[in-house]
Amino acid sequence: MRPLDPRLLKYASATRGTLAAGALLAVLRTACVVAFSWLVTDVIVRAIAGEELGSLGGTLLLLAGVVAARGLLLWATDAVAARGGARAVGQLRERLTAAIGRLGPGWVARRSSGDVTLVAGHGMEALEGYFAGYLPQLVATAVATPLLVLTIGWADLTSGIVLLVTLPLIPVFMVLVGWATQAAQKRQWRALSTLSSGFLDVVAGLSTLKLFGRQHRQEARIREVSDQYRMHTMKVLRMSFLSGFVLELVASLSVAVIAVTIGLRLLGGSLDLSVGLFVLLLAPEAFLPLRNVGASYHAAAEGMEAADRAFAVIEAADGVGEPAVAPGATPGDGLVFDEVTVGYDGRTVVDGFTAEVPPGELAVLRAPSGAGKSSLVGAALGFVPAEGRILAGGRADAEGRRGAIAWAGQRPGLVAGTIADNVALGNPAPDEAAVTEALRDAAAGELDPGTELGAGGTGLSGGQAQRVAVARALYRLRTRGCRVLILDEPTSALDAATERRLLASLRRVAEQGAAVLVVSHRNAAAEAADRVIAVESEEASRVR
Questions:
Q1: Is 50 exceeded by the pLDDT of residue 31?
Q2: What is d(CA 179, CA 297) in angstroms, rounded to the nearest whole number?
């Protein structure tokens, strides 16, 4: 792990302000440390010289003020780190969720939802320890250590040279310990990811397991993974304590070397007491930031592991760029594909696809499995990188297309709440009449909008969940002024009679001025369509 990942400054701008404020506070705290050492030295030397307590009153009062100022600066440092950390974590979480939205449901479907949730939830919370503990110490090390070394070298060159020789021992041991800690932390994170994913899968399938009396067999698996996570966590903690001991030992021995040299020179009369005592008081303070940053490294390791995974997601979303503009495309209010090519991992899935769904028409996209139907839908929504030009509602940019398209994927993607909450998902003030109308047009008029659903739409059959997802797309189409409706396999779980009702509703939606594209293998959908768009599995794509 790098001391400070530059991507953190890029994706969480609040980090810059936290670093600047932390550096300023570190300078002030260093000044207090130097002033405290100088005043203590002055008081002790003058007391040894026989001065009265009354003559030392002003210095003692000034010393008390420095102590109070140092305490206030320590409090300010913690407050700035906590507030800046909360803002930076919030910004990073926003970037992460926005990146997941840009990558789209296809990307999420190829990954464990538990792993994604772990990074966005527990991982971002663990990153707060990085800001609250590690980052302030890192800034203090970068600012205070050079200033203290220069001060000691200015007061006593010999002690400054000894300090320069012994000080690098701590970073060397920090690097050695850090390598081992990073490997252990990665193993701990993998164990936590496996535990969360496994537990999520068990909870999702608990009703099925109980139905067949197999729920107890999963207890042993969860217990085994929990024990593995516990062992990895204890290894990380053990390394943390051992590394803290090593850093303390190295720092103590280094300070002892400086103290011995000062003592010998004081006995020999080659060093003044005031200089020796001043340097001796400052020497531990020069090692303190390095010791603290090494000790706080372990608290930050888990959060930085999560941040690294979050950066990977954000960078993957940044790679989903806008498609290149192909000449000759004519803007329209419907859906237009012009020489669109989609590929994954160096393999072309769709090559040179051209088609148009004008407003007022119902089109069906048909193709063999794996020919790229869902990839074309993902490209239209801006979730899949593609070459060529795609227009939706007259907009060519991905954000504009998403604003012009209402869609429902193959998976309903329902959440815990009422049916109305799922239909109006994302709308803070749902329109009850529009919800009822959307359910009716989705051939789900028999469903009560107030019915409570469990996680994942528990409480509905597959066909009912599918129609609720279609109702959500219809609700968005009407309440947000979308011009294009895209449905991916909306009738795959429906009986023939319900399918006919839904297709009749979709035709009415098209007649009202929307461009409707249905991805379907069903013959009934093709028969109800104004046009059938076929994607060939070879290079060419044709419209018939």
A1: yes
A2: 11
